[in-house]
Amino acid sequence: DDAGTFYAEIGGHPTFQRIVHRFYQEVAVDPILRPLYPEADLGPAEVRLRMFLEQYWGGPRTYSQQRGHPRLRMRHVPFVIGPAERDAWLRAMRTAVDEAELTKEQDERLWNYLVMAANMLVNSPG
Ligand code: HEM
């Protein structure tokens, strides 16, 4: 039951769908990010990120059912992520979160987490 979770508070599945879809529209045209994605079709990557974020914020646990333990740091090892890649990722995500029209408090809570997680995944000095 996701009642009372941040997932439910910000609108559940449609909100996460909207944010992550918008994020990947930015990735698709970003000269730093696009080359990092191994697959021509960004659709499956979009689904994985959405499922992960939904699970993290108290929604369905589909991510772990399909992918196992997140181990995000390990899963990003194949990609060179320096400050430029982190900043590009956060820029694309900022655009996506802005369009979700969250309250100031909701926005801050989500954004603080995303910045922390993006910093954690930097694995190269650049
Ligand atoms: C996967 C890049 C930050 C969550 C990926 C992939 C790339 C990538 C290239 C492979 C696409 C795929 O096949 O799924 C980056 C870059 C980041 C970043 C450049 C900049 C710091 C983040 C953050 C999160 C995240 C902050 C979570 C808050 C994920 C997830 C997957 C993924 C859940 C799929 C893992 C799996 O199940 O295989 N990322 N990422 N990433 N990323 Fe990131």
UniProtKB/TrEMBL annotation:
Protein name: Globin
Native source organism of the sequence: Nakamurella aerolata
Assigned keywords, A-Z: Heme, Iron, Metal-binding, Transport
GO molecular function, one term: metal ion binding
Family: Belongs to the truncated hemoglobin family. Group II subfamily.
